[in-house]
Structures
1.
Amino acid sequence: MKKLATALLLSLLVSGCCALRQIAPSVTDSTRVEMRTETKFIHDTAWVELPAIVERIATPDTTSTLENTYAKSEATVTAGILRHSLETKPAKVPVEVKTQIVYRDSLVYKDRIETKTVEVERQLSWWQQIKMRLGVAFLISLALALIILFLHFYKPLNLKNL
């Protein structure tokens, strides 16, 4: 009888190890949008072109000074009058510029699961439908209970040894 109880316990444990399948809904759709904005400042050099400037002065003095960083100077004394001319040269001057760059990015995450209904060739038999509804473990335990009842009524068991 101990062997029967062990067999019953073993059959219940083994029958519980079956694969289950869940049916997913027909269509599941989920969309998620992620926006990212990043601002960077870049230091750059721009070139500025200076305009040509012409400047002249006439004075009765013996000396005259005209100065410019980007200039050409000429001084002449004629008949007691000092003539001085200053001409700037056209040049490109570097100027440091701070440029703002904005990066905008959006990511769209879209998850979509589609399940299709597949027609089967034939319907399940009544035995397959019962197994699906009740489960194999229940059917095994029911069969073992029926065997024990059958043996109890037709061959009295000594239940004290169990």
2.
Amino acid sequence: MFPAPPALGTQVDRMGRPAINTALTGTFDPTCTKATCPAKDAYNANSSQASWVGDYQKNMEAYLGIYDGLDDTCGNQPGFTAATGYATLAGVLANDVLWLNTASATCQQYLSVELAALGVPNTDCGGRTLTENTLDLTYNILAGTLTPATLPATSGPAVNGSTAATKAPSTTFPYLAAPQ
């Protein structure tokens, strides 16, 4: 006989796509401190998938405009058009779910399903592996420096040479790598 599963407590984090909340929610909010940020905490605690886009899209659109200027070229983020501005990308990112294309047998590109929805052609299944450099890829998308021409064959290595893992994960659960 197995014991009953533990009762779940209050949801404190959502991690479908790392860095989205960090980059696009309350980033310049003066009420945020090192210990807490009401906007980020609310985003993490929101468990209603049906309301994510409505609750966060407009706020994320404003922050996307800031990131878009980092490479001195505004309007080059995936999904940006003069007619819709940042709404399409904000709508895709506000729905904090990691999408998978189960029809694809190639799974080497983090956010590939999301990028395909934004007009970046690819046939990868999406999702992410333990060696994905999710932070580097996410910030390159936000800054508009990741285009179909620069989309790496696999997102394991750093796109712009920054934060790739240096040690492989173990092949058994919980798949932890040795400390860096």
3.
Amino acid sequence: MQVKKSPLILEEVFVIASNIISIPESEESTASINEFEIEIDFDIYSDESDADARRVVVSVSGNDSEHPAPGYCFSIVAQGTFNYDKETKIKKKDKDVLLTHSAIPIVIGQIRSYISTLTALGPFGSYLLPSIDMNHLLELKKEQEQDLPTDDEKE
């Protein structure tokens, strides 16, 4: 099948911050290796000089750094820069869907690859970040934003 190019243009993706350590098994350990919760958060920023430019920043953390389970403990922050094809007319709603269902997963995919590559030579072998339920992640983000006080409420 011949694919149609997306009007969402990926300009670059890079890692902003990274921390990965290995937690050895101990006699008290009850969890399996790399059996821990994953935390993901993201933010989308606009560019004042270019109305269509977007910066998508995603942070992914695995394992509780305070009480880590055996395996890897990591925190990665990556940023993707995106734009839209200037020659294609796109509705605002469609732009939002492209950001949430394409841009964010692209950055998460880059983080997945980064973690896998860095852990490949580690004591527990390559760690592959599991698939993410994007609909659930977006619901959680929406709930989180609804709980935040507005500027008027802060005063």
